[in-house]
Design a protein that fits this description.
Layout (H helix, E strand, L loop, with lengths): L5 E7 L6 E7 L2 E6 L3 E11 L6 E12 L6 E7 L4 E6 L2 E6 L17 E4 L11 E6 L3 E7 L4 E8 L5 E5 L2 E5 L3 E6 L5 E6 L8 E5 L2 E6 L3 E6 L9 E2 L6 E5 L2 E5 L3 E6 L5 E6 L5 E5 L2 E5 L4 E6 L2 H10 L3 H11 L6 H21 L3 H11 L3 H5 L25 H4 L4 H20 L7 H15 L3 H8 L6 H10 L3 H10 L3 H12 L11 H9 L4 H14 L1 H4 L1 H4 L7 H7 L4 H14 L5 H20 L4 H17 L5 H8 L5 H11 L2 H11 L3 H11 L5 H16 L12 H10 L6 H7 L10 H43 L23 E2 L5 E2 L18
Antiparallel strand pairs: 1-27, 2-3, 3-4, 4-5, 6-7, 7-8, 9-10, 10-11, 11-12, 13-14, 14-15, 15-16, 17-18, 18-19, 19-20, 21-22, 22-23, 23-24, 25-26, 26-27, 28-29
């Protein structure tokens, strides 16, 4: 079905003269003949009351014979001036537009080959018309007044055959070549040549854009800059005239009128018209003329054209035509609603053809009620929703099965499209009017398609759906994990747990079920401790490691003692929970710390007997040592009792350190283990939070042990090398007076030379630091006194009345410490953290 954009309606069936040119303005129609006659008609548009069809009546008003006996080549009206310009025998005449009397004594300009009116004039005077007049070797830019023509500018150019003017630009068809002239600068831009056998049509179509007859029967669009921004139109051979009526290009040849779209440059309509020679758009009125007749091309309303295209399912053409037609004959709101409806209809046409990407795009652009789309898929809309399709209907599709002719594969693709479209709506960030319908449909589609993305959808979004219907649908399609998740998301935890319990017991099966982990994840969300205790034993019996997460990650409060009692039969889970209490909850109850320490002691002892697990033993000992040094809440006596009879000397030393018995701890490390590095690290660890004096005592104790013979040894069996290294490395941590008092008298000065030098340097450094600190404090004190003295001079005494309050906290001043700002505002020092900004007014000082 071809597009019907225009109808032919007769205006003048037959005239006595041979029509060579014509012009129209409003109701005025002017005809120029081959023997210098100009005729003026009044054309009235009427409507037949019986048929409703439009017809025209004409009335001859006047006639003028120019007397040249030559053809009238061009006619052009200047309606604002009431004038008609006539070109005949190279003479440009100016006539009265009503009675056709000649203005003046003769032609206004002679030797004229062609002329045109500037349709985008550069003048602000409404009673002046700009002309471009083509002569033999130039073009003249003129200004037309009521009784005269004024020359503005003359530009040399080859003899023009056809011209069109827009603003400051003139498109000229010269001898075999098109060019664009800038009348302001005189610059010329050559375009392309044309065939001598082709008439060089030049037509202005938009601001600074022209349509030219190009080689190979192409209609070429060219801008004033000399470039083409639209594809060319391929028209037929022998075009005698052309015109532009948005958004169409009309051409005429000997037998036909052909109409092309400016939007896609495609042929749209053909009208039979024999002998057509002239075609023109006169301010929206399209006239076409043969040798002795005149017809009007009546444009069909663009809404009718769009509907015809939609009826023939030429969707893209219909949408483009609507977008380029603008709100002609209607308000912006009506136009917007019409375009939205058009997009929606286009979407359903594309959906029925299986072109899903375009269907989705049209639905989104048209802002369709999503229920219109969902209603095509039986069972997806909630039964509680009462929905009636739009009237008049947007489509004639009963359901998706009818649209796809029952093809199951195509129906599956259509369901995948709907799911993709609904997910796009959910993720777009725009408000969704019908969330219940959308979410219900998404869940049902995911379940039917058995998509793993269903769980992701349930986890990542807030769900508003019809729970009974979705639950029934999920059970029908055996999506039990998703069913449990949906119950949980919508707050029905009991039903969720029941479904998960059945899955764990394998009463029902679901390929997406992850096992006991899903049940634990659900229990973690429970805020009722009774629910947790009800299912805890069931979970622990099947997986203690996963089960302990119920107690460590729960949101409910659980008594730790009861939890530990429940975990008696699950040692690994109990250990994990103890770590949770100590490491995460930071609980200081000594029974939890003691139990954890005793557990690791037992594990280390057990692993010590198994020689094949050295790595595991090393890991357990490190955990035990870290726990003994980091925790101060276990019972050291009980731990020491458990350590007796073991080879865990480092651990025993750590417990002695916990009791403050540093000498026992260090003696064990030095004499029993002979681990001098461990002894030094012990001192460093124990002295981290100690005072300087206590720190010195700890290192001095180690030095005494180094200098004391081990039990059963002689006075020569001292640890000389470690003692000297200790003195060298920790000279700043050992008091010189106490060190000198315990050193053996037999030691020479050279042995302790390095220690003494480092100790004295450290002492001098500390002394200097203290002097610097004292000087800084005195300086600060002096600055404060200077500020106080300046304030006293500037402000005088500052009385603080009993009822004076702080501007921030509104409390009274109970001491002489306060802050006062230059504007008199007073505040407590703690209420005014920034001394440069008034806390009341915000003024910066």
């Amino acid at each position: 079905m071809a597009l019907k954009a225009f109808d032919l309606v007769s205006v003048l069936d037959r005239t006595e003269l041979k029509i060579e040119c014509f012009e129209a303005s409003g109701k005025d129609l002017y005809l120029g003949s081959d023997d210098s006659v100009v005729v003026h008609y009044i054309v009235e548009e009427r409507t037949n009351e019986s048929t409703g069809k439009i017809f025209y009546s004409t009335n001859k008003i006047s006639q003028k014979n120019l007397g040249t006996k030559k053809t009238v080549v061009q006619l052009k009206t200047a309606s604002a001036l009431g004038r008609l310009m006539v070109l005949s025998d190279g003479n440009l005449y100016l006539l009265d537009a009503d009675v056709l009397n000649t203005i003046g004594s003769g032609p206004k300009i002679k030797n004229v080959s062609v002329f045109c009116v500037n349709e985008n004039p550069n003048t602000l005077d409404p009673f002046t018309v700009q002309l471009c007049v083509g002569k033999r070797r130039c073009i003249m830019i003129c200004s037309l007044h009521e009784d005269r023509v004024t020359l503005l500018r003359e530009i040399s150019t080859p003899e023009p055959i056809n011209v069109a003017m827009d603003g400051s630009f003139v498109c000229v068809a010269g001898q075999g070549q098109y060019c664009v002239l800038n009348v302001d600068t005189g610059a010329s831009q050559d375009l392309f040549p044309y065939s001598p056998t082709t008439y060089p049509h030049v037509k202005r179509v938009a601001k600074e854009e022209f349509l030219l007859a190009g080689p190979g029967n192409l209609g070429m669009f060219v801008t004033a800059a000399g470039i083409s921004e639209r594809p060319p139109i391929q028209w037929t051979e022998g075009v005698t005239a052309l015109s532009y009526y948005h958004p169409y290009i009309l051409t005429i040849c000997s037998q036909f009128i052909r109409i092309y779209s400016l939007i896609d440059q495609q042929h749209k309509q053909t009208l039979t018209f024999s002998g057509g020679q002239l075609l023109g758009n006169f301010d929206g009125q399209l006239y076409i003329a043969g040798n002795s007749c005149v017809y009007c091309l009546m444009p069909q309303p663009w809404t009718s054209q769009v509907q015809a295209l939609m009826d023939s399912e030429r969707v893209e053409e219909a949408v483009e035509l609507a977008e380029h037609s603008g709100a002609v004959g209607m308000s912006q709101e009506q136009y917007h609603q019409l375009c939205c409806t058009l997009m929606q209809k286009a979407g359903f046409i594309k959906l029925s053809h299986g072109v899903y990407d375009q269907a989705k795009d049209f639905f989104l652009r048209g802002g369709i009620d999503v229920r219109e789309v969902i209603s095509l898929y039986p069972g997806l809309l909630p039964s509680t929703v009462s929905f009636m399709r739009m009237q008049p209907p947007l489509h004639h599709i009963a359901d998706i099965s009818q649209a796809m002719h029952g093809d199951k594969s195509k129906i599956g693709e259509a369901k995948a499209f709907l799911l993709n479209y609904l997910i796009h709506l959910r993720n777009s960030g725009d408000p969704i009017t019908y969330r219940l319908e959308v979410d219900t449909a998404i869940i049902k589609l995911y379940a039917e398609l058995k998509s793993p993305n269903l769980m992701t959808f349930l986890r990542s979004t807030d769900i508003i759906c019809s729970l009974p219907e979705c639950a029934e649908w999920l059970e029908k399609h055996q999506q039990y994990s998703a069913l449990a998740k949906l119950y949980r998301v919508l707050g029905d935890l009991d039903k969720s747990l029941k479904v998960l319990t059945r899955l764990v017991r394998e009463e029902i099966k679901d390929q997406h079920f992850k096992g006991i982990q899903d049940l634990v994840d659900c229990l973690i969300c429970a805020s009722d401790s009774a629910v947790i205790w009800r299912y805890s034993e069931f979970v622990l019996d099947r997986d203690p490691i996963q089960g302990v997460r119920i107690f460590t990650e729960t949101q409910a409060y659980l008594d730790p003692s009861r939890v530990l009692q429940a975990l008696q039969r699950y040692p690994e889970a109990r250990l994990s929970f103890l770590h949770h209490l100590i490491d995460t909850k930071k609980m200081r109850d000594e029974k939890y710390h003691t139990e954890l320490v005793l557990h690791y002691i037992g594990e280390v002892v057990r692993l010590s007997k198994d020689k094949s697990s050295s790595e595991q033993l090393q890991e357990s000992r490190e955990k035990l040592q870290n726990l003994l040094t980091s925790s101060c809440h276990y019972q050291p006596q009980l731990v020491l009792k458990r350590l007796q009879g073991t080879e865990l000397h480092i651990e025993t030393a750590a417990v002695f350190g916990r009791l403050g018995e540093h000498e026992k701890a260090l003696s064990m490390l030095v004499h029993q283990l002979r681990d001098f590095a461990a002894a030094e690290q012990y001192c460093i660890a124990q002295s981290r939070t100690a005072s300087e004096e206590k720190k010195s005592d700890i290192f001095l104790t180690l030095l005494k042990i180094y200098l004391r013979p081990h039990p059963g040894g002689t006075e020569h069996d001292i640890e000389l090398a470690p003692a000297i290294e200790l003195l060298s490395v920790h000279a700043g941590d050992l008091k010189v007076s106490e060190v000198l008092s315990i050193l053996p008298p037999s030691w020479s000065l050279s042995i302790i030379h390095n220690y003494l030098r480092a100790a004295l340097r450290n002492a001098m450094h500390q002394s200097r630091i203290k002097r610097i600190q004292q000087t800084l404090i005195r300086s600060e004190n002096l600055q404060q006194k200077f500020i106080l003295n300046k304030i006293s001079k500037d402000m005088g005494p500052i009385p603080v009345a009993n009822n004076r309050i702080c501007c921030v906290c509104n409390r009274a001043f109970t001491s002489c410490e306060f802050t006062i700002y230059p504007n008199g505002v007073m505040a407590h020092r703690g209420c005014s953290p920034n001394k440069n900004v008034c806390p009341l007014t915000g003024t910066v000082f």
